[in-house]
Structures are given as structure tokens and as C-alpha cells.
């Protein structure tokens, strides 16, 4: 069974393709019943239907190829709950020779394009060609006519009717960055502004010890609202402050006017209220007019404006950003990152932008003041380590994590995405910020410098456009799962949030984000992958060989604010006890990805040692269940090639990638280049290192080109520049071309490392190789050695076999 081919048809990878009918048999499988779902899988042939889907009146499942249809009575029977549903009048002309695309057997996935410009009903679809009704297809028509109503790629050929206002982007910039870093960041932000659609809303927030929100609608000078970086503000306070101008003005210096907002007693501000600063800039002299209370409500809200109205203003404001004053000796810069994020989210909440928006944070250091701080500004206090987090010695970790969890709830409620671009040699607080970034589906990039090619490529890739000129971004998404009555939903792991919407298909057992059959996602990409977990009902009446169904309904919004709904319906069969179809339908790659996600989920709540013990126990149980062996005889142990070995042990960040990329993270690839022929894959072992070969290593986050000692010596001698050594020149070029292709196609952009054998950079490769030869090995002459106390894969497997065959 080709599981990759099935994924290309359904966008799904099942850990088990045949499910047992009894609960004890399911428990003995060890690997849970699960599906890796990539909702926006690019299909070569995807029907695009410009009308509303038909839902079952009882279970809300969408009409699909597995539904039984009575064309005479115009009734369809739901394949999930067997409810009879009448077709609406718009389906009056359907018959056996003229069926809707959603009923065609080859289309397990269809996409509905909704929105203000779409009229309801099948009959409302306009005829786009003489031979094709919108959403209808004749059985006698050829496959070539499918292009009349289907699109390729992600299925966005019919853009629908967009609305006036586009998505919103609030750029949150760290003013404590060094001048060089800030200049590089400003260049990229200015370039990003030029690539935004004219109807996109933009806002700008700059933070150091204070948080400054720019009023982009004020044309006379640069004007900002300043919030104190040590005080936490509620969303209501941010919304109230951002819609008003101050009451009492005080001269600050020759060309700056400060207007204090709030209740003032003896010129001391009470309560967590902001300051409004109006500074001289490119727009002319500063404003000095007094502001009255009566004029507050009529003040223009210019903190979030379309690019068409404020492009010059925001570009001028970005150019005006300067690095904060010099830091006190022996101290870190005062960064109020938490308040800056809270204010940016509050700005979007106050403007009621809940159909698609991003808060994009650019920082170069840890938060040192206010809510969300992770370390004291005094350098005598070291930043928390991984051991400190486990031992409870990280002073600010718990409070900061709780603060950011509250932020994540606000992000979910308003469909806001939080992105983090952190470029620093120091920690920036990614551990605390991980939860809101991941739960909102945001992008996280950890780099060394804003001047790096990695940062530039990542940021520009986010603002790529499709053939219609729309941003390749999707917002305000949700996924609903509908199941046959015997299948229960346990939960999901990935960039999603449970909205606690229960029905009869929701299990009491919770895995990850559970207790629901609908999940909220801030955004989606064509590679976003979510793992869904299931169990069967206690008293199950299904018969072996009968079918069960699972449907995924993904609703999302394009960057032009048009609504889309993609529906995928899949069917599998129940099998009897000890059926051979269970083992033959096991997808080891999907199972490895699922187990890795479960390990990551457990690691967030348990000690690493406990997670490793759980993985050990799980692997032993699995090998004992499916291995072929004579009891108490380890040498007789055999395991089918359908099953994984060590891949489930690696704990890596793979919660949103699909199966292929997850496997690269779990078990990196290694290719060998030599004079003997084309590149060949080799085992991930220290024995693969040789003086006269080049190795190309890919671990998803790092791509390493490793030159053997002889190859490196010949390169240093310049043999590749000698025309008589053309073959050597081609040998050097081959891995570089392949590495450049890997780097160009992947986001986040992996770090490219070029190193020679025995050099310090070779550690990027040696750290991932199986230590079959160590300092304790007896015969090491002429071979590479890894200095480690870890056991080799062979020793590990021998112990696994011994434990698996025990009685």
C-alpha cells in the first residue's frame, strides 16, 4: 500500500488504515488511532464550487460521494447518521447523468467559495462554458472538461468577491536593538510595506522601557501614544486610550510636546495611563494646540489605517526609529516586550479587527521589565537555563507563561496571529512566548542577526503573492470533524485551539486540545498539519468489513477576505480481531510523527526522564506485540519492515509539519558524493565519514556539507580551478547545488553549514550520527571516532530485542 499516494488524494496520513472493532484490541495496538491531516494540501485537481454546501440536518455532515442519493425523490441519505435529507430547489435538475461535483466518486475533497459575492444554491452557479454548469458534471463528459470548474494548486482560482478592507498587520519593533541591527530591520520593514496590498491595514508599535504606538493618521508631525512598560493594561484600557487624545499638556523640550492622559494630581499620573507624545518629524513643526475634553470623541483614529491612506506616514515613522539610549553599565537594555504585545493585540481588539490580522514582533533580546519579563536587567542575574526551568529556579518563568497564556486566549478570541522574529545571540524568551505563537499558528524564527539572509528570506516569503496578486495568507480558520457514530474524537495536537464544542462524537478521553469536535486556527498554510486522535465506542456494533467515515470541514478566509470551505471525506473499513490487515495497513512514517508529537506534548508537563521512560516502555510493548520471535530467544527477533525502530525516540519541534518533514526532523537524511557515481543515500552512522567523499546532511533546521580530509586538501590546493581536474570541480559543485535547492524551498530557512573533516563546524554532523565507533572501541584505526558515553544503535536494538521476547 502506497501511503504517500493516498495522501496525495486525501491530504491525510493514517497511523492505522484498518481499525479493529473491539476496544481491547485497539488498546493493544500501542500506537493510537490517529490521522495526520493537512487541511490545505495542494491538489492537482480540486473542484471549486461557487455555492453553499449541503449539510445534514442532524449531524451537519456535508454532502459527499458516500451519500446515497434518490434522484427520483430528490433525497439524499447521510452516510454518517443515515438521516434522509431533501435536496433544495437549486438541485432540481440533477440526475444519474448530471451529478454535482461533490457527489462524484473521484472527488474526496471539494472546496466551496463563499462570501458576499456568492449567491446560495447550485442553480445560481453561472454557466462558464457551454459544456459545464458551475459545480455540475455529466458522467459522459471527459476528464479534460474538468478544468471548466476545477482549479489546481491550493484551489484559489476563483478568488470570489473581496471586501473593501484587507487583513491587518501591526509591526512591533524592538527599539533596544543596536543601530546596525535596527538599520537592517528597517530596510526589510520598508520593503515589506511596499509589498502589501493597498487595502491592508497597518500599525506600528516601538518598544524599549516604554511602548510607543504611532498615530499614522496625524499628518502634521510624528505623534505617538506612550504606555508605561512596567504596567499591565487590560484590553478595555488599551481600546479606551487608543481612541482618545490627552487632557493636560506639558512642554518637554524645544520640539516635543507631551500631553498626559488621565487624572492628574500635582502633575503625577495616577493609574496605568499613557502619555501622548507629538514629535517634530518630516511632516512639519510640532503641534502645540490645547486639547479639550469635548474634542476627544471626534479625534481621528489613525493607529490602524489602510496602506493607501498612510504609506508615506508609516514609512517615515519606520525611518524615524532610532536605537534607544546607551544602557547603564552592567545592565541589560530595558525591554517591555510583554506590554508591547498586549498593546498591539488591544489595538486590534479595539478596532474590532476579527477577520484576519497579524502581530509581528521583531526583537533582539530578552524582556527585562513589566509583564512577560524573563530576566532582571542587572547582568549579575544570569538568564534562566533549561535546568532552571525543570528545577523551578526560573524566577519569572511561571508568571510570564501565565501572562502569555492570557495573551493567547485574546489572540484566539479575535482571530489574531502572533509572529516572533528573534535575532540575537542571547535568549529572547522563546520558551515563554511559544504558547501564544504556536496556538495562534504564528511563525517563529530564531536567528542571529537581522542582517542575515535567513531573516530576509523568511520575512519576504511570508508576503509572497499568488497569480491573482493576493497575499498567500489565510486567516480566521476552523476545522470541524464529523465521524460515524462508533468513532469518538479524543483531541488534536498542532497549531489549533479547542473551542469546547461538544456533541455525541466527542470522547471523554482527552488528548491535547480535546473536549470538542471544532478547533480554531489563527492561520493555515499548505503545509500546516494537525494530528487528530480517535477511539472507538465501548459498546460497538460495527461488523468487520463494514465501512466507517470521517469528514474534515475546514473553513478559512483568504487575504482578500473571501470565505472558503474545504471538505474532505474519507472511508476505511473495520476489521476483525487479529486480522492481518491491521499490520499491513500500518503506516510507520505517520506513526513515527504521531509518537513524536505525543512525546513533545508529554514533555511540556513531565520531566524529560519520564518521557524517555514512557517511550522506552511504548516501544518495547509495540515490538512485543508485532514482532516475530521465539520466546526468550533475542536472536530470533524479527520485525516487519512496515514498523519503525528508533524514530519515535527523537523529540523535535514538528507540531505543524506534515509527515515527510517530520521524518526529516526525526531521522535526518545523509547523502554521499564521490567519484564513483551519482550521490547515494548512506546510513546515519559515523562509519559513513570517509576522507575521499563529500556528505550532504539535512536535519530540516540545518543543512551541512561535510568535506572529507582529502577532498578539503585538494580544494585548498586549488585542483578545482585546474582544467585537467574538471571532474573534481563538478564533484564540489554537486552538493552545493542540492543544498541551495533545499535551503530555497524550505521555511524557516535552514542554516547552511560548510565544514571540513576534523574541523570545529563538523560537530553539526557528528552530533547526529550513530556512535558505532567511540573512544572505547577496540579497532579504530583509520576511522572517525565520536567521543561519547551513549550506546550505539546496535546495542540499543539488542536490548530492545531481549526485552521484547521476555515471557
TrEMBL record:
GO terms for biological process: COPII-coated vesicle cargo loading; intracellular protein transport. The keyword Transferase does not apply. GO terms for molecular function: GTPase activator activity; zinc ion binding. Residues 53-91 form the Zinc finger Sec23/Sec24-type domain. Pfam families: Gelsolin (PF00626), Sec23_BS (PF08033), Sec23_helical (PF04815), Sec23_trunk (PF04811), zf-Sec23_Sec24 (PF04810). Coiled coil: none annotated. Component of the coat protein complex II (COPII) which promotes the formation of transport vesicles from the endoplasmic reticulum (ER). The coat has two main functions, the physical deformation of the endoplasmic reticulum membrane into vesicles and the selection of cargo molecules. Keywords: Cytoplasm, Cytoplasmic vesicle, Endoplasmic reticulum, ER-Golgi transport, Membrane, Metal-binding, Protein transport, Transport, Zinc. One of its GO terms (cellular component) is endoplasmic reticulum exit site. It is a peripheral membrane protein. InterPro entries: ADF-H/Gelsolin-like_dom_sf (IPR029006), Beta-sandwich_Sec23_24 (IPR012990), Gelsolin-like_dom (IPR007123), Gelsolin-like_dom_sf (IPR036180), Sec23 (IPR037364), Sec23/24_helical_dom (IPR006900), Sec23/24_helical_dom_sf (IPR036175), Sec23/24_trunk_dom (IPR006896). The keyword Coiled coil does not apply. Residues 475-575 form the Sec23/Sec24 beta-sandwich domain. Belongs to the SEC23/SEC24 family. SEC23 subfamily. It comes from Sesamum angolense. Residues 167-464 form the Sec23/Sec24 trunk domain. It comes from the Eukaryota. It is found in: Cytoplasmic vesicle, COPII-coated vesicle membrane; Endoplasmic reticulum membrane. Residues 587-643 form the Sec23/Sec24 helical domain. Residues 679-765 form the Gelsolin-like domain. This is Protein transport protein SEC23. CDD domains: Sec23_C.
Amino acid at each position: 500500500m502506497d501511503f504517500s499516494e493516498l495522501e496525495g488524494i486525501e491530504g491525510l496520513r493514517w497511523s492505522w488504515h484498518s481499525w479493529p472493532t473491539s476496544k481491547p484490541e485497539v488498546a493493544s495496538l500501542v500506537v493510537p488511532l490517529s490521522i495526520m491531516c493537512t487541511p490545505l494540501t495542494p491538489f492537482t485537481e480540486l473542484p471549486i464550487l461557487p455555492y453553499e454546501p449541503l449539510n445534514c440536518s442532524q449531524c451537519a455532515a456535508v454532502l459527499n460521494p458516500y451519500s446515497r442519493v434518490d434522484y427520483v425523490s430528490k433525497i439524499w441519505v447521510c452516510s454518517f447518521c443515515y438521516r434522509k435529507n431533501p435536496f433544495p430547489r437549486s438541485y432540481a435538475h440533477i440526475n444519474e447523468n448530471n451529478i454535482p461535483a461533490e457527489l462524484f466518486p473521484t472527488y474526496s475533497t471539494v472546496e466551496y467559495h463563499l462570501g458576499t459575492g456568492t449567491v446560495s444554491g447550485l442553480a445560481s452557479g453561472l454557466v462558464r462554458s457551454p459544456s459545464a454548469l458551475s459545480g455540475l458534471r455529466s458522467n459522459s463528459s471527459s476528464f479534460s472538461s474538468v478544468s471548466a470548474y476545477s482549479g489546481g494548486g491550493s484551489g484559489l482560482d476563483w478568488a470570489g468577491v473581496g471586501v473593501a478592507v484587507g487583513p491587518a498587520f501591526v509591526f512591533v519593533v524592538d527599539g533596544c536593538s543596536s543601530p546596525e541591527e535596527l538599520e537592517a530591520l528597517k530596510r526589510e520593514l520598508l520593503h515589506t510595506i511596499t509589498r502589501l496590498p493597498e487595502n491592508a491595514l497597518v500599525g506600528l508599535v516601538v518598544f524599549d522601557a516604554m511602548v510607543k504606538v504611532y498615530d499614522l493618521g496625524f499628518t502634521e508631525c510624528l505623534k505617538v501614544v506612550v504606555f508605561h512598560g512596567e504596567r499591565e493594561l487590560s484590553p478595555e484600557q488599551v481600546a479606551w486610550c487608543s481612541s482618545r487624545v490627552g487632557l493636560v499638556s506639558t512642554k518637554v523640550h524645544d520640539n516635543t510636546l507631551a500631553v498626559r492622559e488621565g487624572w492628574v494630581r500635582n502633575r503625577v499620573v495616577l493609574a496605568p495611563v499613557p502619555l501622548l507624545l507629538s514629535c517634530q518629524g518630516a511632516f512639519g513643526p510640532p503641534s502645540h494646540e490645547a486639547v479639550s475634553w469635548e474634542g476627544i470623541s471626534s479625534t481621528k483614529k489613525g493607529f490602524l489605517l489602510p496602506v493607501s491612506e498612510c504609506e508615506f506616514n508609516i514609512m517615515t515613522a519606520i525611518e524615524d526609529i532610532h536605537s534607544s539610549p546607551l544602557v547603564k553599565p552592567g545592565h541589560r537594555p530595558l525591554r517591555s516586550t510583554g506590554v508591547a504585545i498586549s498593546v498591539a493585540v488591544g489595538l486590534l481588539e479595539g478596532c474590532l479587527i476579527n477577520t484576519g490580522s497579524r502581530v509581528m514582533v521583531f526583537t533582539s533580546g530578552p524582556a527585562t521589565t513589566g509583564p512577560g519579563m524573563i530576566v532582571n536587567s542587572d547582568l549579575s542575574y544570569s538568564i534562566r537555563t533549561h535546568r532552571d526551568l525543570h528545577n523551578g529556579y526560573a524566577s519569572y518563568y511561571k508568571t510570564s507563561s501565565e501572562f502569555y497564556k492570557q495573551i493567547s486566549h485574546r489572540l484566539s478570541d479575535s482571530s489574531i496571529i502572533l509572529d516572533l522574529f528573534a535575532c540575537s545571540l542571547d535568549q529572547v524568551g522563546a520558551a515563554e512566548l511559544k504558547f501564544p505563537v504556536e496556538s495562534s499558528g504564528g511563525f517563529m524564527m530564531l536567528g542571529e542577526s537581522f542582517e542575515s539572509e535567513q531573516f530576509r528570506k523568511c520575512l519576504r516569503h511570508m508576503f509572497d503573492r499568488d497569480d491573482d496578486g493576493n497575499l498567500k495568507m489565510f486567516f480566521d480558520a476552523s476545522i470541524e470533524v464529523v465521524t460515524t457514530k462508533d468513532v469518538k474524537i479524543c483531541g488534536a495536537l498542532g497549531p489549533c485551539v479547542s473551542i469546547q464544542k461538544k456533541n455525541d462524537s466527542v470522547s471523554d478521553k482527552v488528548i491535547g486540545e480535546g473536549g470538542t469536535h471544532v478547533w480554531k486556527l489563527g492561520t493555515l498554510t499548505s503545509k500546516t498539519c494537525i494530528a487528530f486522535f480517535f477511539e472507538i465506542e465501548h459498546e460497538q456494533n460495527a461488523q468487520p468489513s463494514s465501512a466507517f467515515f470521517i469528514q474534515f470541514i475546514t473553513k478559512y478566509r483568504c487575504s482578500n477576505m473571501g470565505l472558503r470551505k474545504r471538505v474532505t471525506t474519507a472511508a476505511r473499513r473495520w476489521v476483525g480481531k487479529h486480522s492481518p490487515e491491521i499490520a499491513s495497513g500500518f503506516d510507520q512514517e505517520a506513526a513515527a510523527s504521531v509518537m513524536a508529537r505525543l512525546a513533545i506534548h508529554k514533555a511540556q508537563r513531565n520531566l524529560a526522564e519520564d518521557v524517555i521512560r514512557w517511550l522506552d516502555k511504548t516501544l518495547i510493548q509495540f515490538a512485543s506485540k508485532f514482532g516475530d520471535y521465539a520466546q526468550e530467544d533475542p536472536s530470533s527477533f524479527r520485525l516487519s519492515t512496515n514498523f519503525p525502530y528508533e524514530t519515535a525516540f527523537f523529540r523535535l519541534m514538528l507540531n505543524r509539519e506534515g509527515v515527510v518533514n517530520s521524518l526529516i526532523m526525526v531521522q535526518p537524511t545523509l547523502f554521499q558524493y564521490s567519484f564513483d557515481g551519482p550521490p547515494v543515500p548512506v546510513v546515519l552512522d559515523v562509519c559513513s565519514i570517509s576522507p575521499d567523499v563529500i556528505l550532504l546532511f539535512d536535519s530540516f533546521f540545518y543543512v551541512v556539507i561535510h568535506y572529507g580530509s582529502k577532498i578539503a586538501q585538494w580544494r585548498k590546493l586549488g585542483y578545482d580551478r585546474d582544467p585537467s581536474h574538471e571532474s573534481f570541480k563538478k564533484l564540489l559543485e554537486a552538493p552545493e547545488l542540492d543544498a541551495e535547492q533545499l535551503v530555497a524551498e524550505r521555511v524557516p530557512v535552514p542554516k547552511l553549514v560548510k565544514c571540513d573533516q576534523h574541523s570545529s563546524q563538523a560537530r553539526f554532523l557528528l552530533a547526529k550520527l550513530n556512535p558505532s565507533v567511540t573512544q572505547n572501541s577496540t579497532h579504530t584505526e583509520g576511522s572517525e571516532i565520536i567521543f561519547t558515553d551513549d550506546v550505539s544503535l546496535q546495542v540499543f536494538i539488542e536490548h530492545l530485542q531481549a526485552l521484547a521476547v521476555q515471557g
